[in-house]
Design goal:
It is built from seven helices and two strands; from the N terminus they run αααααβαβα. By secondary structure, the protein is mainly alpha-helical. It has a two-stranded antiparallel sheet with strand order 1-2. The two termini are 21 Å apart. The N terminus is likely disordered.
């Protein structure tokens, strides 16, 4: 690690923005990203990311398997430029290896024949752990690893937030299903419920911490010049 002059730090803003843009752009993969349809045909694995009806599973697959490497290529060029200009190096390759490695592992696991589509997809019991075969988790893992490399608590928190939301949304069905114990906490009957948010809304929630990190880091970098 090279010592860097004042103003060399704060480079996490562009990767954070890139991850956020990729998340938000994936809203186009869903047939009903903002409106609630009368019925949903959610095909497993969830190549779009969330357990909802996709425009095309093939398009979703290509989006993540082309978009994710492209994002890491942009991040690589960004850090190479910063290393040349500021003399500071960041261990971004581990983040890229983590994100791409988990993404490839996901594809391998999804290709293993496991029988019919989980019965939980037609009820609120959900697909359980099989639902975690989603490209959102490799993205979350990469954000956490990059946050460690950048010594950015914001990025680590953002990646953890994405992983937590993904784990909840992708292990229950329909989207936004609340288990019974959550209603008990707020004085309900314990029958559970469902949030009325749609896929685009959840993607905005996932991307919001990344946008905050990007804004704060960019403002800090400009202020230190």
């Amino acid at each position: 690690m090279f010592s860097a002059p004042t103003g060399a730090h704060g480079g996490a803003w562009l990767p954070a923005l890139g991850f956020a843009v990729l998340l938000l752009a994936s809203a186009a993969l869903y047939r009903h990203p903002l409106t609630r349809p009368y019925s949903i045909d959610a095909k497993h694995p969830f190549w779009a990311g969330l357990p909802d009806e996709q425009v095309s599973p093939v398009a979703s697959y290509l989006f993540w398997f082309l978009g994710t490497p492209l994002l890491f290529a942009v991040i690589a060029l960004w850090y190479a430029w910063r290393a040349h200009r500021h003399g500071v190096r960041v261990g971004w390759p581990l983040a890229a290896a983590t994100g791409l490695g988990v993404l490839v592992l996901l594809a391998v696991l999804a290709a293993v024949p496991v029988g019919p589509v989980p019965d939980g997809l037609v009820s609120a019991s959900g697909p359980r752990w099989a639902g975690l075969l989603t490209p959102l988790l490799p993205l979350a893992a990469a954000v956490v690893v990059l946050g460690r490399a950048e010594h950015s608590r914001g990025l680590v928190a953002a990646g953890t937030w994405i992983a937590a939301l993904t784990a909840w949304l992708c292990t229950s069905f329909p989207l936004g299903h609340l288990p019974g114990w959550t209603s008990v906490l707020i004085g309900g009957s314990g029958a559970g419920g469902q949030l009325s948010l749609r896929t685009a809304h959840y993607l905005v929630l996932m991307a919001l911490p990344l946008l905050v990190v990007a804004a704060v880091n960019l403002a800090t970098a400009r202020h230190s010049r």
